[in-house]
Amino acid sequence: MKDQIHVFWYCISASNHRVTSYDIENIKSLQSRGLKVGIVITQCDNEEMDDEGRGVTSLEFRNVLKDNSIHEPVFETSTQMSDGLQLDSLIEWSSEILPDDGLREAFIGAQKSNIGLKIEKAKAAILAASGVAASAGGINPVPLSDSAVIVPVQTALAVRLAKIYGFNATSNAALALLKSQLVSLAGRQLAASLTKLVPVVGQLINASVAGAITAGFGFALNEIYKNAYIQVLETGEAPDWAKLFDNIDISGFIKECYEEKRNA
User: Fold this and answer.
1) Structural domains present in the chain
2) Do residues 11 and 42 lie in contact, with contact meaning Cβ atoms separated by under 8 Å?
3) 213 or 117, which is more confident
4) What is the C-alpha separation between 257 and 27, in angstroms, rounded?
5) Which helix (H) or strand (E) holds 154?
6) What's the start-to-end Cα distance of the chain, in Å?
7) What pairing do the DSSP bridges indicate for beta strands 74-76 and 204-205?
């Protein structure tokens, strides 16, 4: 494996303000061999912006590549980690096109710079899913014991978080455990515990409860995937999903989110 190259990142600096004929020849040479190539425009934080908030140099580079019949994916990156631009997208694309699970896990294990970006992206996905669940609960309140009505939202969120942390193709065991967790959360045991938590609304899932359940579940799952990601970084080994699930109090996350919504 160490003697093979699976993905090429062809880097062109925005600070140079031009794509050279040498660049075009190199990229086309890689293309002609059927190799996977991503074009990375670097130092984009230093370029001038147009009226629509687009990088002027990056846009020119994209047009030059297109005019030369180069249609490989293009990613704009920054010298500052706090403004990664499309760095996370570059990493996700690279992971997805690798030919097998072993390579994907090895690639994920090599990424030590984008945990913060993943956490922020996960938080945005969780809040969006919480809003969807709250809307569903507000339109049609349902019995607490029938909380499976929001399971589709939670399942979609779980898949999204898996992709953010790079486990979308390498976590069949995690997804199997996830399904059992969802079933448990949707069952009567959770309903009984939440009855004490939400005495005002009694036995109905309304907008606030639906949003809290989904947000709490999302933040708990985010913690699981984050810990799994760190475990891969530190050990290079596949995560112990059963242990990770056992160490997380999902109901505790839900309770915390509900209390935050109630006190807001």
Assistant:
1) 8-97 (3.40.50.300), 115-263 (no CATH)
2) yes
3) 213
4) 50
5) helix 151-164
6) 53
7) unpaired
Percent of the chain with pLDDT over 70: 70
**Separation of alpha carbons 19 and 45, rounded Å:** 18
Q: Which two tokens stand for residue 187?
A: 């069952």
The phi-psi region of residue 28 (left if phi > 0; otherwise alpha if psi is between -120 and 50; otherwise beta) is alpha
Query: Which of the four pLDDT bands, split at 50, 70 and 90, describes residue 40?
Result: very high
Q: Tokens standing for 176?
A: 């199997």
Helices 151-164 and 172-186, packing angle to 10 deg: 150
Q: What is the mean pLDDT of residues 18-45?
A: 93
Of the candidates 203, 199, 209, the one whose C-alpha atom is nearest the C-alpha of residue 188 is 203
Residues 71-97 have pLDDT tens digits of 999 999 887 655 667 887 888 888 888
Other CB atoms within a 10 A radius of the CB of residue 21 amount to 9
pTM of the complete model beyond 0.70? no
Sequence-distant contacts of 159-164: CB under 8 A, at least 24 apart = 160/125, 160/129, 161/122, 161/125, 161/126, 161/218, 161/221, 161/222, 161/225, 162/225, 163/92, 164/118, 164/121, 164/122, 164/125, 164/225
